[in-house]
Structures are given as C-alpha cells and as structure tokens.
Amino acid sequence: MQVRTRVLVAGRVQGVGFRWAVEDEARDAGVTGWVRNLPDGRVEAVFEGEEESVRRMVGFCRRGPAAARVDDVAIIKEEYTGKFEGFFILS
Q1: What pTM did the predictor assign?
Q2: Is 4 annotated in the active site?
C-alpha cells in the first residue's frame, strides 16, 4: 500500500546535517518526496512510498542524525499522489 506522510521536526535540527541524513535514509528506504528547513527552526519533510518504508522514515526523523536533538515530531497523514520521481532537498 502506497502512503504519504508529512512530518514537522522540532529541536536542534538545523545546522546539524539533518536534511542530508534524511535524504540519504530516504533513498536507502526507496521513498520519494522532499525535505526542507523552515524559518521557525523546524525541518519539514514529505515521504511517499510503501507504508513500511514511510514508517521507517518517520522513525528516523524521531531520532535524527547523531548531532541532532529531536524534541518533537508532528505527523500528518496525507493523500498519496505519486508525483515525485525521487527524493530531494528543497532550498
């Protein structure tokens, strides 16, 4: 089953390689979508793919890379679109 999930990650998640780590993990998991920094200091990401792979990405966002400190992850289930051809970092 293909699903789509948006996450908003709060904590020390900017300037610690969070987006690059998410990009690497997403490509390994075979999910599509994007990740970006938000002006308020959070990181936002959208994941599309097999339910288990998307769940893996949400789990990764709850931990983050070694230099990060994740305080909160908001999870928003959305309608799957299938419009992404890969995973990328938005500037």
Answers
A1: 0.96
A2: no
